[in-house]
Input
Amino acid sequence: MTCGSLFAGVGGFDLGFERAGMQCLWQIEIDPHCRMVLRKRFDAEIRNDVKEAGKRNLQPVRVICAGVPCQDVSVAGRRAGLAGSRTGLFFEFERIVSELQPEWFVFENVPGLLSSNERRDFATVIGRLGQCGYLQAYRVLNSQYWGVAQRRRRVFIVGHLRGTGAIEVLFESEGVPWNPQKGEEAGESVARGLTKGLGSGGADAAHVQAEWLVPDSINERSMPLDGRQGSAVAVTERTRKDGRSLETQEELAYALTNPGGGGRSHSRQIAGLFGVRRLTPRECERLQGFPDDWTRYGIDENGKEVDLSDTQRYRQMGNAVTVPVAEWIGKRIVQTMRS
Output
């Protein structure tokens, strides 16, 4: 399985898909600091302008993924919709999908896309991709059910070229159209049934946000915090039946936002034992399911390793796709192909 990545950011989709068994052949990202991280972390061809890419210079792949910029459909923005200069880049995604005709595509955006322009923008997205030959399914997934301590709802559209596999990827076979699960209950069921072992140490991903063991038993990949200073909102102490202490996280972090992007001002702050402090870049990486220090270093165009500023790292995490969610979708695509 090969994949290509549009609006790649720092590779949330790409890392998740590689963990699912795919090989990323190319990435397109306009931000030079993000490209530095991509050079450091992936062995793929990197291009900087989606408008200059297409069938003439991109290798054929089985899957194309894209986190199209969301600023013009976000409820925190001016809601210009597909007419905006940033979310309007959807049409470049559509063009490349039409030219390359991959067997699958995966599209991610904020839930505001569903209501933008009185729902006409979402109808345009589904309609135009359908004209390219894809049967599609869409679902809003919340990152908190995939083993990260962050509430982050995103709409994912999966398309399968002339096939019905998109439904199998996003929905469990036990579901029936006349008795669907609703709201968060559906997300919890998906996590219980399908995400065991995906970044949660084998724990039930639907409940992994509830309790964190003290450091001698900690699961580093799941733990969103540096040490024991605090949790995403509050920390209390409890004792297990065997007498060992537990840190209990009563609430989760709000969705990480791009600094200055209009999100909650406290979305990157936590309350600890010594008062409120700002989340560190490493904690933001953990809240998005990335390995520690994923964005700390990059490689510039001359091949020199450089340190990235905290400002750039916060921005990159605010715009990123949550890795365990991407991994789950990637594994479902691979499983569907095999079946």
